Amino acid sequence: MHFLILGATGRNGSLILAEALSCGHAVTALVRTPSSSSLPPQPQPNLTLVPGNPLCLPDIRTALQTPRAPDAVIVALNPRRVSDSPFAAPHPDTPESLMHDAVRNALEGMKAVGVLKIVINSMQGVGASSGSLTMPFRMLFEHTNMKYTLDDHRAVDALVTGKQGEGVDWVLVRPPMLTEGEALPVKDYGDDGKGICWIPKITRKSVAVFMVDAAEKPDWNRRSPVIAN
């Protein structure tokens, strides 16, 4: 299969890219900096790098046709912060609606070339999964800098489940707290996250494996699974 990845240089996106390539898929990655150290050494078989910005619709359109239209789009974007802490303030160069605006562009570009599947790295606490958060986590998400990320993810949800997502097979993957480590078995707790433990965790590599799996198969189409190890 052939995937277009948005956010391929991020901590999750680079792992998704590596997983897709290891599975034998062809990948196009829209990246601001093709020389980024988080990308595989070039030239890389089955990998096409397209310089550009997901906030620029013409760049999205170019990526969607280089070298050909993909079977699916995988989105692993996350707002930049002033440090690696998830509670750090947003970076001044990052718009608050980064993910929403990028996904809006992706949907518009996809429909123009007949690409009808998108898999998005969301987060636990959005949509029907909000009730699966414990009170301490709910307070953290609503009353710290995490609220900006949560709001952007909510806007993405409204976009893909609304009119602009009509006719598209979307998957909103909702992991909880992210950890480092190898890929481990993943449990799907449904769209509402019912039955998940109080402090759920999942390794980034586990998320990467699940995201590629969701792009390959129809099993999670038009679903928003909460996943954890």
Automatic annotation (TrEMBL):
Looking up InterPro entries in the UniProt record yields:
NAD(P)-bd_dom, NAD(P)-bd_dom_sf, Polyketide_Oxido-like
- A molecular function GO annotation: biliverdin reductase [NAD(P)H] activity
Write down a Pfam family by its short name.
NAD_binding_10
UniProt-recorded name of the protein: Nad-dependent epimerase dehydratase
* Similarity comment text for this entry: Belongs to the avfA family.
- Which residues belong to any copy of the NAD(P)-binding domain? 7-218
What is the protein's species of origin?
Answer: Colletotrichum kahawae
Q: Which domain of life does the protein's organism represent? A: Eukaryota
